[in-house]
Write a structure and sequence with these properties.
heterodimer, A: Rossmann fold, OB fold (Dihydrolipoamide Acetyltransferase, E2P), 2 domains, 6-stranded mixed sheet, 5-stranded antiparallel sheet, B: mainly alpha, MetI-like fold, 76% helix, binds adenosine-5'-triphosphate, binds magnesium ion
């Protein structure tokens, strides 16, 4: 495995505010890495540092093992699909895609051939003469892709390229983009704040929080075993409970929650006996019924307080004795309504033990 | 409502439009009067004799006048080019590079000269440039030249005066288009391998063409009709067509001939405006 992009202790400040805080990451050749995080966490800044649009205050950017920290964007074999596409409004689709080739002094024939291939790839043959203003959002996004790819980059940076598209089109483009990346064998560094998008597309996800990479791992890893409370929260864990590790019990770990409930987990995480941790449980991992089919390791009884029906799924908020509230999520089918007494339960393997950020 | 009815009421509304009323009363009407006079004949005592012919226009095409037209066009052209070359970097700095906090202040600096009468400012240039003026005193005092230079009453003095007077009219429209320029496009250009210079030629310049056209029109047209500046700063040979028109109306008192020349000038200006508007439309249609 060869490394395509490597960031070594990259830091960047704007007016005393740390936007990138000692970022370390290695991206392999042909890998699809996603930077995932909430608005303002520094995703765009990190991408701009890789592209050469920002100079980090400290740290090194390596591309193919070469230190490019001081190189301007036009000297890096990295291309960007910008958040708002940044297509040249005065140039036709053809000239937009040809722009990078022309700067390299490519011959007319080569330009024609490459642009034709690019248009083929984005299924937009026949639109050569159109101006960006005459394109739909999805078409603009495709042209921006073709324009960046025409330069034959080693790394493609994508800054929320789908954020302006409607949900249906976005889903289609996600699949398309993923195929394209696999076919071309290119390194993609993709930015999004949409966790689903990140899970669908990425080989690895780097979850960012206030300028730091909190958890870097495969989609499955960050989803199933988030390292911190922030990562868990960002990836859809809804139930959090502070508890203290009391000890082992029948091969499991026994925790005591603040409200006095005992909870069993399969892992102890990084906690030692007597230490407290935040525990997390995903809503879809909690069963909820008037009578559970079989007893669960962690089982409580409570009353349904809220019921949110979204079509395919129904979410029930259950108040468990002693003030604890659990959010559950299950495929919609007739079941307990608001006010009914229910049992909720989840297995010890579904209890996540989370570190501080 | 029927279509023709709608059309006639729209016509009425257009005629009543105050802006058009002004245009008619203060521009089209005088122009029409001038046009009529331009075909008339000079009376013995400087009045107008209403005997119509094309004589004035034939005279206006004589070689003497053609040289003056050529000089005038060259002067106005040079003024425009110099203004553009000086205003573009200034406008670029104010709109793109300068700290946004200071933007309005810099713009203010660009228009501050308007607070004083143009005539006074031109006289100030005379004080600066004449043989015993500030510039020559300094140059001689520092020993850079032994004799005072002849800075005044020549073409370069006129050119300088025109550039000085018209510069703000170039800076302002350029600033407006440059301020609208999406700097993200320049980053995109650099991302695609364009050096900053290439990004300027292929992105910034084409996208600010509308501002360049407006600035050119704003500078070229007044320069074409300038007469105060060449009169005060120019020598006897620096005459421009505006001076001729002024002479014909004020001292020679040949109003019909002056009107003919003025009308030709107006035609040139209108033709230029027409062309520039077409170009501007074409460049803006892309956005
Ligand atoms: N040029 C700048 N000057 C000062 N602060 C900046 C600048 N650029 C970004 N910031 C700040 O840096 C922080 C991170 O910005 P960044 O654009 O990297 O966020 P992001 O993760 O891409 O967010 P989003 O999802 O909203 O695009 C923000 O708080 C922003 O206000
Ligand atoms: Mg961003």
């Amino acid at each position: 495995m060869t490394t395509s992009v490597e960031l070594v202790r990259i830091s960047k400040k704007y007016q005393d505010q740390l936007i990138a805080d000692s970022i370390n990451i290695e991206v392999a050749k042909g890998e699809f890495l996603t930077l995932l995080g909430p608005s303002g966490c520094g995703k765009t800044t990190t991408l701009r540092i890789i592209g050469g649009f920002e100079v980090p205050d400290s740290g090194t950017v390596l591309i193919n093992g070469e230190d490019v920290t001081a190189l301007p964007p036009y000297r890096r074999r990295v291309n960007t699909v910008f958040q708002h596409y940044a297509l040249f409004p005065h140039l036709t689709v053809f000239e937009n895609i040809a722009y990078g080739l022309r700067r390299k002094g490519a011959s007319t024939d080569l330009v024609k051939e490459r642009v034709a291939r690019g248009l083929e790839r984005i299924q937009m043959r026949g639109s050569e003469k159109k101006l960006p203003a005459q394109l739909s959002g999805g078409q603009k996004q495709r042209v921006a892709m073709a324009r960046a790819l025409a330069c034959d980059p080693e790394v493609l940076l994508l800054d929320e390229p789908m954020s302006a598209l409607d949900v249906k089109l976005r889903k289609e483009m996600q699949v398309e983009l993923k195929h394209l990346q696999k076919d071309l064998g290119l390194t993609f560094i993709f930015v999004t704040h949409d966790q689903e998008e990140a899970l669908v597309m990425s080989d690895r996800i780097a979850v960012m929080n206030r300028g730091r990479l909190e958890h870097v791992g495969s989609a499955e890893e960050v989803y199933e075993r988030p390292r911190t409370e922030f990562v868990a929260d960002f990836l859809g864990v809804k139930n959090f409970l502070r508890a203290t590790l009391e000890g082992a019990e029948k091969g499991r770990f026994r925790w005591m929650a603040a409200g006095g409930q005992a909870i069993l987990s399969d892992t102890g995480g990084t906690a030692k006996v007597g230490e407290s941790r935040m525990l997390g449980v995903r809503p879809e991992k909690i069963d909820c019924a008037e009578q559970l089919a079989k007893p669960a390791v962690n089982q409580f009884s409570g009353r349904v307080e809220d019921l949110l029906y979204t079509g395919s799924t129904t979410s029930r908020h259950v108040a468990v004795a002693s003030g604890m509230r659990l959010e559950t999520l299950a495929p919609s089918r007739p079941g307990a309504g608001v006010g009914s007494e229910v049992q909720v339960g989840f297995d010890s393997k579904n209890v996540l033990v989370l570190d501080e950020s | 409502m029927r279509a023709d009815e709608a059309r006639s009421s729209r016509w009425l509304a257009t005629l009543m439009d105050p802006a058009l009323g002004w245009l008619f009363a203060f521009f089209l009407l005088p122009l029409a009067v001038m046009l009529v006079i331009s075909f008339a004949r000079r009376g013995t005592y400087g009045g107008v004799e209403w005997i119509y012919s094309l004589n004035n226009y034939v005279r206006a095409m004589s070689p003497d006048y053609l040289t003056i037209y050529a000089r005038t066009l060259a002067m106005a052209g040079a003024t425009t080019v110099l203004c553009l070359l000086m205003a573009y970097p200034a406008a670029y700095y104010i709109a793109v590079k300068a700290d946004p906090k200071w933007r309005n202040f810099y713009l203010l600096l660009a228009v501050v000269p308007f607070w004083t009468s143009f005539l006074i400012r031109t006289y100030a240039w005379i004080l600066l440039l004449r043989t015993e003026g500030l510039v020559n005193t300094l140059l001689v005092g520092m020993g850079l030249v032994s004799e005072p230079l002849k800075l005044l009453y020549c073409d370069s003095a006129v050119l300088m005066g025109l550039v000085y007077g018209e510069l703000p009219f170039m800076i302002l429209p350029l600033y407006t288009t440059l301020a609208k320029l999406d700097t993200g496009l320049l980053e995109a250009a650099e991302d695609l391998g364009a050096s900053p210079a290439q990004a300027f030629w292929t992105v910034t310049l084409p996208l600010t063409l509308p501002g360049i056209i407006v600035g050119t029109v704003f500078v070229f047209i007044p320069s074409l009709g300038a007469f105060v500046t060449p009169d005060l700063l120019g020598g006897s040979k620096s005459i421009m067509i505006g001076n001729r028109v002024q002479d014909l109306f004020a001292s020679v008192r040949d109003q019909p001939f002056g009107a003919a020349i003025s009308f030709l000038l107006t035609l040139i200006v209108l033709a230029m405006l027409f062309v520039s508007m077409r170009v501007k439309k074409a460049t803006e249609a892309m956005e």
